């Protein structure tokens, strides 16, 4: 008995030393990349229990390899504005891991884009894409270009210049980009057009998130937001709860937020607030989702203009104060680290029951710890928002087969994927000694899938 306990302790120490040692190496190699290190730390904290059961992951150097992107492409994007002035932005594509399939992940256009943000997003994508169960590897890209205030033609010229360089590194079986912040079906359309022009043909599966009228999948636009709500609904059902009659606050008013709000409302919730980077609106009667769509998806307006149609609604300029509104469920769907310790304290004091991360890494580590300590149900982004990339993989399948599924078919498959992800997270958490902890469950379930493939593919 003593000997077995001794062996277990030795294995545990060896596993802890391994995780700690690799984290120190990664930190040394990427000293100023705070978002990337934050994402690595969260994963590493969850993975500790794995290595005492799977020493082969240590001998195969899985952590050392999975934290180093297979390839990072950085390039100049020169473009001319409407006045003929030349501008230069920086473009990125991080091709992080291809053990499960072609690199797959969105393109972000936002002034904050830098190497750390690109790497954290591509790293998260490894585990998220693995959780979907579909044959997709992981990547992410973007540029520090700010679409705000640019004309339609400027956006087209910038996007064409961006993809002229990116086209050398992507393809339907190599790397398949999609949208993210600042990139929707309009930008994907420009990328797709320019890519095909350069290649002299039509390669349907090179981008996803295309317009369903020209090569895209029905249901892709809605998939991330709907998927997030489907996942949270599963988590609520596990506790005998539901969306019926609850109050919900959603940050952002872009692609993910809009369709998270729509699905929550369809399931009987009252959504009382949403935001953009300028501020938030609070409508105690419940947000009119069609009005939000009109303002943000079609008219490209700021969210405060909602109050022109609904004068009883209130507009507040500080978008991060949205978390001071009492709610049962909070869905952060805007951007990374938008919900910090202070916001978490406010939500908990106001009785929040559940959090669902529609955005990538929207909660800081400190906020997550507080939710955990206070028994708040927590759906981590890499599981909860995986519906978008899952339907992107369905778009790839439809493109390869040269056919189109109906929106009902796509939605049914999406619900199935989200349920499967939920049960994989639950069972991984249970098997590794953390029952009910979906953060640990998501990280372990995603990691195991990729790590096993990396062992099978040899050291490379
Ligand atoms: N589009 C997709 O399919 C997926 C997106 N995500 C993640 O979801 C998040 C949102 O992405 P999208 O909706 O696609 O982008 P989007 O560009 O359509 O919308 C982003 C929204 O967030 C707002 N925003 C930006 N910074 C903000 C801040 N600090 N506070 C409040 N609002 C702010 C913007 O005004 C905009 O309304 C990102 O973290 C993205 O990586 C995750 C999975 C898939
Ligand atoms: O649909 C895709 O390929 C990308 C989605 C994405 O960027 C994400 O899941 O964060």
TrEMBL record:
| Chain sites annotated for binding substrate | 104, 125, 128, 179, 392
Keyword terms, alphabetized? NAD, Nucleotide-binding, Oxidoreductase
- What residues form the catalytic site here? 140
Site entry: Important for catalysis: 180
GO MF terms held by the record? glutamate dehydrogenase (NADP+) activity; nucleotide binding
**Cellular component terms, GO, for this chain's entry?**
cytosol
Residues where NAD(+) binds: 224, 255
InterPro entries, per this entry? Aminoacid_DH-like_N_sf, Glu/Leu/Phe/Val/Trp_DH, Glu/Leu/Phe/Val/Trp_DH_C, Glu/Leu/Phe/Val/Trp_DH_dimer, Glu_DH, Glu_Leu_Phe_Val_DH, NAD(P)-bd_dom_sf, NAD_bind_Glu_DH
Any one Pfam family match given in the protein's UniProt record, by short name: ELFV_dehydrog_N
UniProt xrefs under SMART domains: ELFV_dehydrog
- Which SUPFAM superfamilies did the record assign? Aminoacid dehydrogenase-like, N-terminal domain (SSF53223), NAD(P)-binding Rossmann-fold domains (SSF51735)
Protein name according to UniProt: Glutamate dehydrogenase
Assembly with partners or alone: Homohexamer.
Family to which the UniProt record says this protein belongs: Belongs to the Glu/Leu/Phe/Val dehydrogenases family.
What biological process terms from GO does the record include? glutamate biosynthetic process
Q: Which residues form the Glutamate/phenylalanine/leucine/valine/L-tryptophan dehydrogenase C-terminal domain?
A: 217-458
């Amino acid at each position: 008995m003593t000997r077995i306990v001794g062996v277990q302790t030795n294995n545990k120490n060896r596993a802890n030393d391994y995780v700690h040692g690799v984290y120190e190496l990664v930190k040394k190699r990427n000293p100023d990349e705070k978002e990337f290190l934050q994402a690595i730390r969260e994963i590493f904290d969850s993975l500790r229990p794995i290595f005492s059961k799977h020493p082969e992951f240590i001998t195969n150097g899985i952590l050392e390899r999975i934290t180093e992107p297979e390839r990072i492409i950085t390039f100049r994007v020169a473009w001319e504005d409407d006045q003929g002035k030349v501008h230069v932005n920086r473009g990125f594509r991080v091709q992080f891991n291809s053990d499960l399939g072609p690199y797959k992940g969105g393109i972000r256009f936002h002034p904050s884009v830098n190497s750390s943000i690109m790497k954290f997003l591509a790293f998260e994508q490894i585990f998220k894409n693995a959780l979907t169960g579909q044959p997709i590897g992981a990547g992410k890209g973007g540029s520090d270009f700010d679409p705000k205030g640019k004309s339609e033609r400027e956006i087209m010229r910038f996007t064409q210049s961006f993809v002229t360089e990116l086209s050398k590194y992507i393809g339907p079986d190599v790397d398949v980009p999609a949208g993210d912040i600042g990139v929707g079906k309009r930008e994907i359309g420009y990328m797709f057009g320019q890519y095909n022009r350069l290649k002299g043909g039509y390669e349907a599966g090179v981008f996803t998130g295309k317009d369903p009228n020209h090569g895209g999948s029905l249901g892709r636009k809605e998939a991330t937001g709907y998927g997030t709500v489907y996942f949270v609904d599963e988590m609520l059902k596990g506790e005998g709860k539901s969306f019926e009659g609850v109050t919900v606050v959603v940050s952002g008013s872009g692609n993910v937020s809009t369709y998270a709000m729509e699905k929550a409302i369809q399931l009987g919730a009252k959504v009382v607030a949403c935001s953009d980077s300028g501020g938030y609106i609070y409508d105690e009667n419940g947000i009119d989702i069609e009005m939000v769509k009109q303002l943000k998806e079609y008219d490209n307006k700021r969210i405060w203009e909602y109050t022109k149609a609904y004068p009883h609604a209130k507009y507040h300029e500080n978008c991060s104060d949205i978390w001071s509104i009492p709610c049962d469920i909070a869905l952060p769907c805007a951007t990374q680290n938008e919900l910090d310790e202070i916001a978490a304290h406010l939500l908990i004091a106001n009785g929040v029951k559940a959090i669902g991360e529609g955005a990538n890494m929207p909660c800081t580590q400190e906020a997550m710890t507080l939710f955990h300590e206070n028994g708040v149900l927590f759906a981590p982004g890499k599981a909860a928002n995986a519906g978008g990339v899952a339907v992107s993989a369905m778009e790839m399948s439809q493109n390869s087969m040269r056919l189109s599924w109906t929106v009902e078919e796509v939605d049914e498959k999406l619900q199935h994927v989200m349920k499967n992800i939920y049960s994989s997270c639950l069972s991984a958490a249970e098997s590794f000694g953390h029952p009910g902890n979906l953060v640990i469950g998501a990280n372990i379930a995603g990691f195991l899938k990729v790590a096993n493939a990396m062992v099978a593919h040899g050291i490379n």
